[in-house]
Specification:
Oligomer: heterotrimer
Structural class of chain B: alpha+beta
Chains: A mainly alpha (300), B alpha+beta (376), C alpha+beta (467)
CATH topology of the largest domain in chain B: Rossmann fold
Order of helices and strands of chain C: HHHHHHEEEEEEEEEHHHHHHHH
Strand content of chain B: 25-35%
Radius of gyration of chain B: 25 Å
Number of domains of chain C: 2
Helix content of chain B: 25-40%
Shape of chain C: elongated
Number of helices of chain B: 9
CATH architecture of the largest domain in chain B: 3-Layer(aba) Sandwich
Structural class of chain C: alpha+beta
Mean pLDDT of chain B: 89
CATH class of the largest domain in chain B: Alpha Beta
Number of domains of chain B: 2
Distance between the termini of chain C: 53 Å
């Protein structure tokens, strides 16, 4: 028989019904998960919301009632804290300083790491593999290891207490991970592209500029964002090198405020939130790249 | 061991989208080896996964034995599956891979051991029991996947293109092994493939699918000799059937089909069909490459002659594959090798008129002398 | 069949011309220049600021505070001998033991659960977001969360709501309230009549230390209790008025309504309970014969929830009973746990994202095979998913160990001055020693100690890349 077989259901079988039961079971199973995760998400947002609301409240309100009260009485919220702090000049100066540290540190790392990544993948030279292994080892070395000798070195060179000093330090300690990231990405670039370019007579620099660098943009973006956030949020290095400097970044400024006026949560919360805005914007705008950077570092 | 029934199965991946499986009804007998074949995206794998319980059904039912299994999770359906990528547990040894399912059923350790070793023996895996899948070759991994299924002793085996990842030689070998296995165990097998050679050589019956719709179900011979539509005719058989579309010229005694610059004179059954559809009607003529012979060597009556222009000739040893053109259409003929053809030669081919198929160009159904669209 | 021309030897390809010579295999000083140009800046940075200083720090750890005199192991003796520093070591140990497990577990749970919901991207963004914030700001944020006063701190407010529901505060939770006549204070917070009473008897229970504003509205003037046949009657009132007598219900003195009064038998068990009326009077009817005391229940005075000092140095272990080093090493200050939770808030998203990627990379068909083999959700997870995820879990785990060993910012921002000593960690101690106390020797020793702790990870990483 070659016809399309038509079934002859025996009368004993029940009428066919829409297969809803399996779907219902699935919905029921996923509801508790959804509820749990919604609760978790709310819990996760609460601390940040708390900070935000506190920053809009007058200082004495903080001392008498919880920030959630302000949600019920929105009239108590105002921008006074922000006005006060932004006009004071302190925070704005700190903001500028932070930018002056973070942007160069990010650009330098991106530049040096992409060059070094190229050198590790597309050039062959004795000791290359050893250098890579040393790099992997250096990724784990804590910042603390360099602070004392470099402080002494900077004092010698007159870099202590200067912004360039901090920039160089961040660049150096950001390099191991950065080079690792770029190197891994570059190994994924097909060699044939470069062979073809070489036959066409391109120099190493041309190949780097015209082929590898453009192709490596996604990794560079991830790296840039990663480094940006890391340097922007750093406290230790700035604390060591800029403790007595005339211009300090946000983290150090807020830290000294905390030390001095631990109870002035209104000022501190406002300053903290201001310091968070840019990283948060960067994070949300480039989330995908940031996640990719994290994954690239963590998983091979 | 059980029969399997698809009862108007419909599977849609999102509401409003075209169904991946469209109203499929099929009965598979207990112990049968049924092959689901079709091009990529035809719905065969989807149908298999619905049967396995890995996909939810949008409408219709599936029965295993007499039970509707729509709402049952895979583990309660008593089926075993062999995946295209074998899907072996990479962190477990071959023994553990095969023992996994029955360990979950809490069989005694002695029973488990006996079953695993028996399956290993059947498949020649005894010396690999301690190895991990990573240390095995493709063919060996495939056998472990089979072993994992055998150990379950299920009502049916479901196989999803198990040979696709093997090289040609291994494929031929393993094809025979699976066929042997079926003979030995007698379990119902539902086998999915896109390769019509596998379908023809392995199946008791073949079900051809295209775009979610079941085209035809039948024995290999049925599908070869009596395809129900142009799709099946073109899908089964390699090289594929040749199709020439033209207009019927029926006047008095002679019947022919005129296609561009060539006119094919029909006789016998083919002529009867052409006469039925009438003068001026469009038909598609279908002829299998292997049914051609050189006119000179063919019979003188009861044949349809086809004059062609030779393009390329591929020497195969015993035969030649002649790529030619007739009118504006390309054509392939498989004829005994004589090695005397050149590019551009004119050649006259002949085919027995009983082997000529005609199709309706609109509906694509095979035409018959008595007008029934579906061939009995 | 077309004839194929005879295959000729492929013509030798001319050597590619490039400025640096014949490609990577080629050589000469041009290649050296290229290598120098590409690798030079990186090697310079790394050598000058990372490589050399690391070695220098290790060496400096054997020298004195100004790095002039060799002192051998003295600095290390100081490190392991000073109590403050031992505290730091202990705290880092607590962090290392608790945090990586907690974070990895949380990340795993989130990664698994988010597979089942449609809004996974939004959820992940919310949970991952704290990574963008500085650790320092995190500390500030969580200081606000951990406020002790239940009126101001989110956590204590919620805990307080529950605590007060279970143990409702009494209406007379006043700081100065005390018995003055006919009552004596008990250690369990209740007040008991000084005299015993028998059926047909009365008691007068006078309290003071209640400011007029604290008297509940609706309280009326108290009066002497009237005897009740077969029962015990009494009055509880504010026994204070200018010119009045103690122990006497003077006019103008108000009764204390809604007080829970217990009738206690001789053995102390409660025979009956009642509440005082608006005038402070109460009656126990039909008490059996015997001698009784009357008590003002402790629940009347129970204070509302005062808030847990999450950021305090209170130890979770009973190590206070020990002394010396054992005590230092075994204390687990509450603030450590509070900080760990804040850190979890920050890093949970990281673990979730990395483990989520690991989950997504698993071969779907292997999991389906398990389903067909008959494994339930849990069995599939336990036997298939989890073992296959183990490498990723280990990566997360190890990364967290390193992060936790270096922990610095959050301790400075989250922990208030009062708890800083107990919450000290190695990195903070190092900063203090080196840059506040200017003892470069001890500072270097601490940094080196930190380095030694991470060396095992370095070894593992390098091995992994090589092999």
């Amino acid at each position: 028989m070659s016809a399309v077989a038509t079934p002859a259901p025996s009368p004993a079988l029940p009428q066919r019904r829409a297969p809803g039961r399996a779907r219902l079971r699935r919905v029921l199973r996923s509801t508790p998960v959804n509820v749990v995760l919604v609760v978790v998400a709310v819990l996760w947002l609460t601390p940040t919301v708390g900070l935000l609301v506190t920053s809009f409240r007058p200082g004495q309100d903080y001392l008498s009632s919880g920030w959630w009260q302000a949600l019920v009485h929105p009239a108590t919220l105002n921008l006074d804290n922000y006005r006060h702090i932004l006009s004071g000049g302190n925070i704005v100066d700190a903001l500028v300083t932070t930018v002056l540290i973070t942007v160069p540190a990010t650009l330098l790392v991106v530049l040096v790491a992409s060059l070094a990544g190229y050198g590790l993948v597309f050039l062959r030279w004795p000791g290359r593999d050893w250098v890579f292994l040393v790099l992997v080892a250096l990724m784990v070395v804590p910042l603390q290891m360099g602070l004392i000798p470099v402080s002494l070195l900077y004092k010698h060179l007159g870099l202590f207490g200067t912004i360039p000093g901090v920039v160089l330090y961040h660049t150096a300690f950001g390099l191991p991970f950065a080079i690792f990231l770029m190197r891994n990405f570059y190994t994924g670039i097909p060699r044939d592209l470069l062979e073809a370019a070489r036959i066409d007579g391109a120099s190493e620099w041309t190949m780097f500029r015209r082929i590898v660098l453009p192709l490596g943009m996604p990794a560079l973006a991830s790296l840039a964002i990663f480094q940006f956030l890391w340097v922007w949020n750093d406290l230790l290095v700035s604390l060591v090198f800029l403790a007595s400097a005339p211009h300090q970044p946000l983290t150090v400024t807020i830290f000294s405020q905390l030390r001095q006026f631990g109870l002035n949560i209104d000022v501190i919360s406002t300053a903290s939130f201001i310091s968070m805005i840019i990283p948060l914007i960067v994070f949300f705008a480039f989330q995908r790249y940031f996640v990719r950077g994290v994954l690239a570092g963590a998983v091979k | 061991m059980a029969s399997i029934t698809f009862d108007h199965l419909v599977k849609r991946y999102s509401p409003g989208a075209a169904p991946a499986v469209d109203d499929m009804s099929l009965e598979i007998a207990d112990g049968e080896f049924l092959v689901l074949v079709g091009p990529s995206g035809c719905g065969k794998t989807t149908a298999l996964r619905c049967l396995a319980g890995l996909e939810d059904i949008s409408d219709g039912r599936i029965l295993i034995g007499d039970r509707p299994v729509n709402d049952l999770p895979p583990k309660d359906r008593d089926i075993a599956m062999v995946f295209q990528s074998y899907a072996l547990y990479p962190h477990m040894s071959v023994y553990e891979n095969m023992a996994f399912s029955i360990r979950l059923r809490r069989m005694s350790r002695a029973d488990i051991d006996a079953k695993v070793r028996e399956a290993a023996r059947i498949l020649g895996l005894e010396q690999f029991l301690e190895r991990k899948p990573g240390a095995l070759s493709g063919g060996q991994r495939q056998r472990v996947a089979l072993g994992r299924a055998i150990v379950r002793d299920p009502a049916a085996f479901l196989m999803d293109e198990p040979l696709s990842n093997l090289d040609a030689k291994l494929r031929v070998q393993t094809r025979a092994e699976i066929a042997r296995l079926h003979q030995r165990l007698g379990t119902t097998i539902v086998y999915v493939t896109h390769d019509q050679v596998e379908a023809m050589t392995m199946g008791d019956r073949i079900a051809v699918m295209n775009l979610g719709v079941l085209q035809q179900v039948g024995t290999p011979r049925d599908l070869y000799e009596r395809p129900v539509n142009r799709f099946v005719a073109g899908f089964i058989g390699s090289p594929a059937m040749n199709f020439i579309t033209g207009t019927v010229q029926a006047s008095g005694e002679s019947v022919s089909v005129k296609a561009e610059s060539v006119e094919l004179s029909l006789s016998g059954r083919a002529a009867a069909i052409a006469r039925r559809v009438g003068n001026g009607a469009e038909v598609t003529v279908g002829i299998r490459p292997e049914h051609f012979d050189r006119s000179a060597n063919a019979a003188s009556t009861g044949v349809v002659k086809v004059p062609v222009n030779v393009d390329v000739v591929e020497f195969l040893g015993h035969d030649e594959l002649v790529h030619a053109s007739v009118g504006g259409t390309d054509l392939v003929a498989l004829v005994p090798a004589q090695r005397n053809l050149q590019v551009g030669d004119a050649l006259e081919l002949a085919v027995a008129d009983s082997l000529v198929q005609l199709f309706d160009p609109q509906t694509e159904l095979t035409l018959t002398p008595d007008g029934a669209a579906a061939v009995a | 069949m077309a004839t194929v021309p005879a295959v000729a030897e492929p013509a030798a390809r001319p050597a590619p011309v490039s400025i640096t010579g014949r490609g990577p295999g080629g050589g000469g000083w041009r290649r050296g220049l290229a290598v120098g140009a590409f690798m030079g800046p990186a090697l310079l940075f790394l050598g000058a600021i990372v490589g050399y200083p690391t070695v220098a720090t290790i060496i400096a750890s054997f020298f004195n505070k100004t790095t002039t005199t060799f002192v051998g192991l003295d600095n290390y003796r100081t490190v392991f001998g000073t109590s403050d520093i031992l505290v730091a070591v202990r705290n880092n140990a607590i962090w290392v033991i608790v945090f990586p497990f907690l974070v990895t577990f949380t990340g795993l749970v989130f990664a698994v659960l988010t597979e089942r919901i449609r809004w996974a991207t939004a959820f992940k963004a919310v949970v991952f977001m704290p990574m963008a914030i500085s650790l320092f700001a995190t500390g500030v944020i969580w200081r606000i969360v951990y406020e002790t006063d239940p009126h101001r701190g989110v956590i204590n407010s919620m805990v307080g709501t529950v605590a007060d529901a279970i143990n409702p505060p009494g209406s007379y939770a006043l700081p100065n309230i005390k018995p003055i006549s006919g009552l004596s204070q008990r250690s369990d917070g209740s007040m008991v009549s000084t005299a015993t009473v028998h059926p047909d008897g009365t008691v007068k229970l006078g309290l003071t230390g209640i400011s007029p504003t604290d008297i509940p509205p609706g309280a009326t003037s108290a009066s002497e209790p009237a005897t009740v046949q077969g029962g015990v009657a009494g009055v509880v009132w504010r026994d204070f008025s200018p010119g009045g007598h103690v122990g006497v219900v003077d006019s103008g003195e108000k009764g204390l309504p809604a007080m829970r009064i217990d009738l206690l038998r001789g053995d102390g068990s409660t025979a009956a309970t009642t509440a005082s009326g608006a005038d402070g009077r109460f009656v126990f009817r039909d008490v059996g014969s015997g001698s009784y005391r009357v008590a003002v229940a402790a629940s009347n005075f129970r204070a509302p929830f005062g808030g847990v000092a999450w950021l305090g140095a209170q130890s979770l272990t009973p190590a206070d009973r020990l002394g010396g080093t054992a005590r230092t090493l075994l204390t687990v200050p509450l603030v450590d746990i509070a900080a760990i939770v804040a850190m979890l808030w920050m890093w949970g998203g990281f673990a979730m994202v990395v483990i989520g990627a690991g989950l997504a990379a698993l071969n779907r068909e292997v999991l389906e095979a398990a389903k067909i083999d008959g494994a339930s959700e849990w069995q599939t997870f336990r036997h298939v998913t989890f073992p296959l995820l183990l490498p990723v879990l280990i990566v997360v785990f190890v990364t967290m160990i390193i992060n936790v060993l270096k922990i610095f910012d959050i301790i400075l921002s989250l922990v208030p001055e009062s708890s800083q000593r107990e919450a000290n960690v190695i990195a903070v101690q190092m900063w203090n020693s080196a840059f506040t106390a200017s003892d470069y020797g001890v500072g270097s020793a601490l940094a080196t100690f930190l380095f030694v702790l991470v060396v095992p990870v370095i070894v593992v990483n390098v091995r992994r890349i090589r092999g």
